[in-house]
User: What shape does this take?
Amino acid sequence: MPGTLSGLEFCTVNTDKLTDNQIALIHDCFENNYKHANHKYFDGSLKALRKISMALDTDRLVGFSLAGSLSVSIPRMEKEQLVMLGGIGCIDPHYRRLGLFSRLANLAGGERESVLDGAERILACARVAHPASFRALRRLPGVIPNEAVPLSKWHLEVGAAIAELYGVQLKPGTMIVQGDGTPIGYPNIELDVSDVEWRVFASVDRNRGDSLLGIAWAPTPPEGW
Assistant: This one.
């Protein structure tokens, strides 16, 4: 019943294995979570990220989360680094504030339990269009963008490498993802966000579909970061 997670069915699949019916349900959930939902943008996310977790109430999709992970070469690092790519997540209004978002995000990134074994550190990344979505990264060490830390050449080099993984381009000298002139969408939920949280989004034109590429290291950034 709405208002509880009891009885929900959970599954995690590769995005390239989604059926037409599953894709339709996912797009419907996205549409219900955003005003002016940009489905072209969302299709790009499905192609860029390889895992999606879903929660279903019988045949109704009530939430999903996109994520990906891979080991790649990162500028100025001697060996390949584990990169976690965070993606969009949507929750049915009746199932919000129940911990479903976190549960789905953990399921989508379920590979991390095995791939993190023996990893010196990970590079956690997310492409976000709202300060509330940036909160998890803000808590991690070495997070950029950060108004207290000017972007260095190394920051920008790594940002460009991560943008390529997402299949997007950054505005020169920034961590702002260039939009295509159309909004990604606006959350249909009121979110309490402080002025401080909005500051790093000051130059992000959400009406043109801009977003912010956030990256941070865990548990600690490499020397010189």
Observations:
- The beta strands are 9-14, 34-35, 51-57, 60-72, 81-91, 122-128, 176-177, 186-187, 211-218.
- The two ends are 48 Å apart (CA to CA).
- The longest strand covers residues 60-72.
- Residues 20-33 form the longest helix (14 residues).
